[in-house]
What does this fold into?
Amino acid sequence: MARLPHPEKHRTEHIGWLRAAVLGANDGLVSTASLIVGVASAGGDPRAVLVAGVAGMVAGAASMAAGEYVSVKSQAETEAADTARETAELRDQPEEELEELTQIYQKRGLDRALAEQVAAQLMQHNALEAHLRDELGITEALKARPVQAALASAVAFAVGAMLPILVVLVAPAASMVWAVGAATLVFLAVLGGLAAYTGGAPVVAGALRVTFWGVLALVLTSVVGRIFGVTA
It folds into this structure.
């Protein structure tokens, strides 16, 4: 009795939005928390600290969205140009394209006869898809999606930035720096671990890696705030 193929879900299917979301949330959390700690260390009153945090969140989310869109849009345009070129080559010189695909499969370990057979069948099924995938490495799972990446970055940045802002709203003014710093480290550890788990990497290593760079950013901004501090 023939066995039915089991459905498989691979982590690379989420790599587009996952990369943008993790980068956005981490950047929003670290940059906003660092800004808050810097202003608070400089002697800023709670209202000034809150305004700085909210302004940093809005500006950062807009910047992340714009930067991610421009970056991924460039990738999408490159993919579109390559797709147009392959389409023209398949139309104008199909024999050369068949030979090119055959040689690709030979390099991957197939003998000449089998490589020719595989290349011919794949090109008969969907020649453009075969060349995009096996010659250029362009697949549906890894295809550039600029709008999706921009939205994911902006939303993730705002979510990450909101965490230290919420701490500012509830923490006493006298202990604001320590409260924001401690909460940020916890958030970073959770974010790093979650990102590592989603991507299939070691959770502890991911959490420690993200937390280390967050600590460094917080320490540096705290020092800057104290050096250029004002009288409260």
